[in-house]
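Quick start: read one record
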Amino acid sequence: MRVGIINYSQTDSPGGINKFVKELATSMSRQGAEISVIEPGVSPGESFEDSPYVVRKIRGPMFRPPLNSSKKFVREVISWINEESPDLVHIHGHMHLLSHQLIRAIKGRTEVPVVFSPHYDVATSSKISSFLLPIFNKIIGRKTANLCDHLFFSSEFESEAYINSMRGSKLAFSVIPLGVDFEISESVSRWDGVLELAYCGHLIRRKRVDRIIKLTKEIIRQSPEISLRVTVVGDGPELGSLMNLATDLKIDENISWRGFLERGEMLKTIKDADFFVLLSDSEAFGITVAESLASGTPVVISDNTALSEFSPEPGTIMAKDPDDFQQIAREILSLQGKEIKIGPFSDRIREWDKTGIEYMDKYIDKIEYD
């Protein structure tokens, strides 16, 4: 099977969609598929870049997402399809123009099946985006969805949110959980003495990293004698305001700002923490939650959107109100010295090879029976 996976960003950059593309391509390559990842790049051409799949870079659009349409990029993708004759093309990302432009062009100019992973989320980065998204969905998104041969979602929440946004569309889709890129094992966690909290990810508004800072202040208020360390891994437009908030709350000395880390160091930070904290407003899946639990680290997460689907997993503390820092702090402090069992897990906590096999099976269905 020959598959082209088209990413609107560079796969080796930080970000959940980039990680998704990389791991899906890797796992399917291990199953014997011939995978080419097509993505924007400064230096066009093909390489393996120490990976089991081919990376084809095409000079990227002039503008950054979401205004990243590019006739040149689309022409080169169409040329690649005509030359290589893939069995199927998989496109990623609803919240920008390039994927919609690609889907329309590929369906209009070739016969290759097109599948789509929207990576759809109800939260947006600004008030103007919240206003424009329903208009965008009505004018562009709905037509794109109807052109696709199949859609893939990572959570029930994402599938419901997307389908509700594409009112009137009858869509063929599958929900396949994401995976983790290391061996999963059940474990027991226990914290005593020093309490270590961690957050890893982009520092953007919907992630609400301010909540872990306010939670830090509340834990210290309730238990002033406690030794508390908080590690924030990541970068983004909210960094300055978050650091100012920590200063205003007089908890600078408790927080370490690390920036984006190499993969191994990031996973070690999660594994070494007593709790991973993600009190975001919205998540389409929450891969760092799965990675934390699979690493043996309990999680404190918002009971909303796709994060609610982690509620059955042992080792999960669900915050029904992510702004009720008193209650969240009390629950964390009540666990001091107690054993927290992590696992056995549901099918949401799995390794990437299982996810890759499920995608391969769906691809084959589309190729053989459509």
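The mean pLDDT is 93.
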